[in-house]
Design goal:
single chain, alpha+beta, Nucleotidyltransferase, domain 5, Actin, Chain A, domain 4, 4 domains, 6-stranded mixed sheet, 28 strands, globular, binds adenosine monophosphate, ATP-dependent protein folding chaperone, ATP-binding
Length: about 525
């Protein structure tokens, strides 16, 4: 049913495996999720090409086993990444679609579309998913949609955030703000409580968000006046359900080899069918202790059949689950809150349905019950929709009164003394924020100083993420240490960094917004906008 309403700002959860879109409805005084064409509230983050058309969402996922080389999933793992990254290489080797090295070490996805091979940036593929979600909202609303809030993992770096914002622009969206996924989930969790004014509220809440591709933890306080203060975040942008599926697939490949003496790992079609079957079996194992995987004619006419137990699944993935718990402990330490002082532990993301994950988390929090009251699949889009309403001046008093104080996920600084990280904004600093530090010339008659910007926690910059570099010229030639440069870092509410360097003597300055960190320039976006209209 289509309803005519005023322009609405939407909230989008752009997930690794599934995405979801929602908006605040003044008429109903609540958030509604927009169903996709098939009537489902979540849409596979999947894009495919064939001889005649471009498919997005369920249509793309449904044909994956017939067309594995031209069906892209998990593109979120490619956003803002470097082709040479070792974790990414592992993914690329396991994916049936082709990923090549583009300029500046950026990955490019190669698809055959209408019998022609074309390469696409991760931003372009993501923009197709975003366009599809935008269209679902527009079909439901009966009007065009422009403004959006898009969610990103709290642990996303500056590069990954910029790439997400660019994907939004490519999809024809005006990205009002990016919001961290656990913070969006906290809004969904806290919203009912904020609405209930009789409720005495100042709660320490721990959000545990394990999705398809990323893992985020966030420690925050929700206060009665409608303030959500994030104290600390942590996680791994490369850990989630996809990894658990992969561990199962690899186990089955080994079993097939043992039983049939045939290696199926090089056959994309067989691997695609095995992945679909393993993901289904993984879901079954959340509610039953054993299941079977049966695939007719998997490889060279040979069937595959095996029994998979929950215990085997847990054994194969135990190192991932342990890693999750380590992140929980380090986030509690960073936020300086003892686990006994956590009022609620909130589960978000499809992979939190895994019983072992729930068990380990409960054990860590001394058997405190976990909060499963929010919809694990929709909570992030819900929170993004509330923020979209607030930013566009919509919504009721609870929406407009909402105050969000997020933090930087990773430390930001510059490279000094040949390879040492000098931190200017430490991780878990509330944003927006502005911090500055003074630097000195290092040798006599030095007239320029370079400012190489990095993000990460290591003392040695080569182990951190390089963002960008510029040079400030025009220092008067003096003895080493006599000339000063002030470097000022400002991080905006999107988590995007602005850098300014200034000579104290001359007042000469130079500033940049970190944009060319392997991401897209304005011109790139314009060029791509033409190309994306396939
Ligand atoms: P999300 O990114 O939050 O949509 O989570 C998607 C991930 O959750 C995928 O890897 C799914 O396979 C996984 N998932 C969904 N339901 C279950 C379940 N019942 N048990 C285990 N994993 C699940």
């Amino acid at each position: 049913m289509s309803k005519k309403v005023e322009a609405t700002a939407i909230g989008i959860d752009l997930g690794t495996t599934y995405s979801c879109v929602a908006a605040w409805f003044n008429q109903h005084n609540r958030v509604e999720i927009f169903p996709n064409e098939q009537g489902n509230n979540i849409t596979p983050s999947c894009v495919a090409t064939n001889n005649t058309e471009l498919l997005v969402g369920e249509a793309a996922k449904n044909q994956i086993t017939r067309n594995p080389h031209n069906t892209v999933f998990g593109v979120k793992r490619l956003m803002g990444s470097r082709f040479g990254d070792s974790k990414l290489q592992e993914d690329i080797n396991s994916w049936p679609f082709k990923v090549i090295q583009g300029s500046a070490d950026k990955p490019k996805i190669v698809l055959e579309h209408k019998a022609v091979e074309k390469d696409f940036s991760p931003e372009e593929i993501s923009s197709m998913i975003l366009k599809n979600l935008k269209a679902a909202a527009e079909a439901y609303l009966g009007t065009t949609v422009k403004d959006a809030v898009i969610t990103v993992p709290a642990y996303f770096s500056d590069r990954q955030r910029k790439a997400t914002k660019d994907a939004g622009t490519l999809a024809g969206l005006n990205v009002l703000q990016l919001i961290n996924e656990p913070t969006a989930a906290a809004i969904a969790y806290g919203f009912d409580k904020l609405e209930d004014t009789s409720h005495q509220l100042h709660k320490n809440v721990f959000i545990f968000d394990l999705g398809g591709g990323t893992f985020d933890v966030s420690l925050l306080t929700i206060s009665k006046e409608g303030r959500i203060d994030v104290k600390a975040v942590g996680g791994d942008t490369h850990l989630g359900g996809e990894d658990f599926d992969k561990a199962m697939v690899n186990h089955c490949v080994r079993e097939f080899k043992k039983k049939q003496n045939k290696d199926i790992s090089g056959n994309a079609k067989a691997m695609g069918r095995l992945k679909v079957a393993c993901e289904k079996a993984k879901r079954d194992l959340s509610s039953t202790t054993a299941t079977s995987i049966e695939i007719d004619s998997l490889y060279e006419g040979v069937d595959f059949s095996t029994r998979f137990t929950r215990a085997k699944f847990e054994e194969l993935n135990s190192h991932f689950f342990l890693k999750c718990m380590e992140h929980v402990e380090s986030c509690l330490r960073d936020g300086n809150v003892h686990k006994n002082n956590i009022d609620d532990i909130v589960l978000v993301g499809g992979s939190t349905r895994i019983p072992k994950v729930q068990y380990m988390l409960k054990e860590l929090f001394d058997w405190k019950p976990l909060c499963k009251s929010i919809n694990a699949d929709e909570a992030v889009a819900y929170g993004a929709a509330v923020l979209a309403a607030k930013l566009s001046g919509n919504g009721n008093k609870t929406v407009t009164d909402l105050i969000l104080l997020d933090v930087t996920p990773l430390s930001l600084g510059i490279n000094i003394d040949e390879g040492t990280m000098s931190v200017i904004i430490p991780r878990n600093t509330p944003i927006p924020t502005t911090r500055e530090r003074m630097y000195y010339t290092r040798y006599d008659n030095q007239t320029s100083i370079s400012v190489p910007v990095y993000q990460g926690e290591c003392n040695d910059v080569k182990d951190n993420i390089f963002l960008d570099e510029f040079v400030l010229h025009g220092f008067p030639p003096r003895r080493a240490g006599e000339e000063k440069m002030k470097v000022c870092f400002s991080m905006d509410a999107n988590g995007i960094l602005h850098v300014l360097a200034e000579s104290v003597t001359t007042g000469n300055k130079k500033s940049i917004v970190i944009t060319n960190s392997g991401d897209l320039s304005k011109e790139d976006i314009e060029k791509m906008l033409e190309k994306v209209a396939l």
